[in-house]
Amino acid sequence: MHTNMHTITLDSETDFDGWRKAARRLAQNEVKPADVTWTVRGGEPELFAAEDNLPEAAEGTFNVSAKFVELAKAAILHRNPERFALLYRLLWRLRSHHGLLNAATDPDVAAVSAMARAVHRDEHKMHAFVRFREVGREQKSYFVAWFEPEHHIVELAAPFFASRFADMPWSILTPDVCAHWDGHEITITPGVAKSEAPGEDRLEETWRRYYASIFNPARLKVKAMQTEMPRKYWRNLPEASMIKPLIESAERSTSAMIANEATEPHKPQKRQDTPMAPKQAHDTIAALREQAADCRACPLWKNATQTVFGEGPQTASIMMVGEQPGDKEDIAGHPFVGPAGQMLDRALEEAGIDRRKVYVTNAVKHFKFVPRGKVRLHQKPSTPEIRACRPWYERELAAIEPELVVALGATAAQSVLGKVTPINRNRGRLIDHDGTKVLVTVHPSYLLRLPDADAKAREYRHFVDDLKIAAALLGQSANAA
User: Fold this and answer.
1) CA–CA separation, 130 vs 207, rounded Å?
2) Most buried among 12, 127, 218, 480, by the most CB within 10 A?
3) DSSP state, 278?
4) Closest alpha carbon to 359 in 378, 342, 334
5) Where do the domains of the chain lie?
6) Mean predicted confidence (pLDDT) in 390-404
7) Domain 285-480 sits in which CATH superfamily?
8) How far is CA 387 from CA 130, 282, 363, 407, 416, in A?
9) What is the pairing mode between strands 358-362 and 318-322?
């Protein structure tokens, strides 16, 4: 009797590919769900671990719908130990009942669907309630978070954080597995104990101030809040210590308002025909440049030679935003005067744009670098540094009021649009953002780094084509005028 039993050992709790391969072969060999035992490697005592006895590959094949594959990919991340068996039983039944997934009342379909929904809810909670703590300072800073997911969702949720916090190295520690981002790729390592998570740091107070500022007692619904933010997550949230006092304060304020007598309605006031105060003029670029010379909003000023502010006519129709000044710009005190600036000048000329009528600036106004002997190697600005410098960009934008902002590279796009913005997915089209048109393209320094001559020529033509979109917009504006 035992010769008909099959024990399948998967590599991990989230081994969907291993489950799919085994399930397909079992089904092709007509192995019934009741004759299969599913385990996870490391989950059983070594002494009694059974050898896999997966049957040989059989001829023929069968297909399942993409809907089942997506459902199974999510459900297999659930912590229910019976999920592998349940999914195989559903797969087994789907071979002869192709429309089974549409039967929402079927017990197997309902159970798998409920597990998939629970996984996605847990993924959403992880996105919402992970709080990073800074370890180290300045160039050596690193961001670490502790989270306790209900299900095996860390690998599923990690790409969200890589996209959201692309410019900062981080680790998310959990009891199951840990996710790490170095700015280029995500790596997964074994889980750790909570004792290895960092303690309170200077970012905690920032979180608390932010939470207090957005807390609206007039819209307080405690039960709804606890449904969206269950108490089990509170112990890992910096703002958790404020929740109870804020609720109590809101309740006291509400009680006091109810107890007070109703006030007399305001009598209509006679309209005053006094003229409105004239609108304050925006800062001039010269005044902004002088103010920015003493900027200490982030630590980059300590090692940079000087602030490198934007330059160009205040009446410019195009405002071009780069990443940060380079070595030559840092020494000269002017933006885009190095090799990347020379390439930009050439591309603007080929696109039909007069460089003298363009305002050029950078998202970050100080040179960030790491010393290597006598050479200063460019280092990409971090998200906190971009945010610290963004008020200067906003004041430049208000002073110039351009028809178009051209964001050169990912850092510039993040500063201009206020979020991480993939370049290739967004270039080649005009984006409306807060009443201003934005064009996203690569930074000319990207072209300089390409080692292949053909690729460099091809990408340069693409860059010029992007700038021609800006030229065409200016042409339309001139014709309309």
Assistant:
1) 12
2) 12
3) P
4) 334
5) 2-124, 130-196, 203-251, 285-480
6) 94
7) Uracil-DNA glycosylase-like domain (3.40.470.10)
8) 20, 21, 9, 16, 10
9) parallel
Residue 126 Cα to chain centre, angstroms: 13
What SS3 class is residue 250? helix
Q: For residue 256, give Cα distances in angstroms to 25, 214, 263, 362.
A: 70, 22, 14, 51
pTM of the model: 0.46
Q: Per the structure block, which two tokens stand in for 436?
A: 């201003």
Counting Cα atoms < 13 Å in the Cβ hemisphere of 324 gives 27
Go through 336-372 and write b for each residue having 16 or more CB atoms within 10 A of its CB, e for each that does not: bbbebbebbbebbebbebebeebbbbbbbbbbbbeee
The answer to whether 448 and 461 have CB atoms below 8 angstroms apart is no
pLDDT exceeds 50 at position 279? no
What does the alpha-carbon distance between residue 332 and residue 349 come to, in Å, rounded to a whole number? Answer: 23
With CA atoms as reference, report the closest residue to 368 among 323, 425, 407.
Answer: 323
Please say whether the beta carbons of 380 and 415 come within 8 A: no
Q: In the Cβ-directed half-sphere of 142, how many Cα atoms lie within 13 Å?
A: 11
